[in-house]
Amino acid sequence: MEKGETVCPKIRGRRFFSCKAWMYGTENEGYNIRIRYRAGLPAQKGEAIRMNIYDILGPVMIGPSSSHTAGAVRIGLITRRLLGEEPAEARILLSGSFGATGRGHGTDRALAAGLLGMKPDDIRVPDSLSLAEEQGLKIVFELGEIKEAHPNTARLLVIGENGKRLEVQASSLGGGRIAVDELEGIRVSFTGEAPTLIVRNVDQPGCVAQVTGLLAERAINISTLQLYRDCRGGQALMIVEADQNIPGELLAQLRGLRGIRKAIYVNMEE
Predict the structure, then answer these.
(1) pLDDT of the residue at 102
(2) Residue 221: DSSP 8-state
(3) Is residue 29 part of a domain?
(4) In this structure, is the dihedral angle defined by the CA atoms of residues 90, 91, 95 and 101, taken in order, positive or negative?
(5) Which helix (DSSP H) or strand (DSSP E) does residue 259 occupy?
(6) Is the peptide bond before 87 cis (omega within 30 degrees of 0)?
(7) What pTM value is reported for the model?
(8) Are residues 71 and 162 located together in one domain of the fold?
């Protein structure tokens, strides 16, 4: 898109008679579009808003739908990475629109593709169910409703080849973007788009300080820190989003700390 190219989108439900768009940014930081538009009624001066280019263009993907296909692939993929080993079995509950229209949009194939390690632009996505069968991955799909969940939500219970078990609930937000809403029975909220550390620990004093202290020693800056627990003194989760990648040796150190039950690292951009 060149500076001054005329477009005429609908923004917040209104059609604007004239507008111009500028694309700016860098390859590393991502591109954004600046739109200056003028409404037909009532007449007013141009107003500038900032939008991410992917809100308009969408992700590079195997279709047909960015929410029901590309987002579903990413849900399967982040589940695979959270499991930390090759999945052998999966029971997947499709809720809301995923359940109602998912088969037509290829949501089942998309989730299977992600569990197999594919990304949204992988040309094998349409054949993922047969590929899963060939590789010995058993997948059972169920339809149901998850209360208070986003319309495009899936709940996955996955068992790995070495017996690891993981339950993940995630939603597809549109444009290929996703959010993990629940992890092992605890309500959470993260996307995996930034370097993300997930720590399961005993809810006791000192655990947060131990983890953040080790990150500080490695000059790893924390961008967000979220804390969850099922009950006082019970099981807790730390979700740490960082500005830098987290090396494997640091994960090994974290797993050896007192009170730490599990430490997982996820970066969906890798």
Answers:
(1) 65
(2) P
(3) yes
(4) positive
(5) none
(6) no
(7) 0.73
(8) yes
CA 179/CA 147 separation, integer angstroms: 16
Which residues constitute the domain of residue 52?
A: 5-57
Instruction: Report the alpha-carbon distance of residue 7 to residue 14 in Å, rounded.
Output: 14
Beta strands in 2-128 (DSSP E): 5-7, 10-11, 14-15, 18-26, 30-38, 47-52, 87-96
Task: Supply the pLDDT for residue 209.
Answer: 95
Residue ranges of the chain with per-residue pLDDT less than 50: 1-24, 31, 33-51, 53-57, 60-64
Q: What's the sign of the alpha-carbon dihedral 105, 111, 116, 121?
A: positive
Question: In terms of domains, do 122 and 14 share one?
Answer: no
Q: Is 201 part of any domain? A: yes
Cα–Cα distance for residue pair 22/34, rounded to 1 Å: 5
Instruction: Give the chain's length.
Output: 270
Strand 87-96 versus strand 138-144 pairing type: parallel
Q: Tell which residue, 141, 175, 138, 185, has the closest CA to residue 160.
A: 138
- Which DSSP state fits 176? T
Alpha helices per DSSP H over 9-147 = 53-57, 71-83, 97-105, 107-115, 128-134
Closest CA to 196 of 237, 148, 164, 162: 237
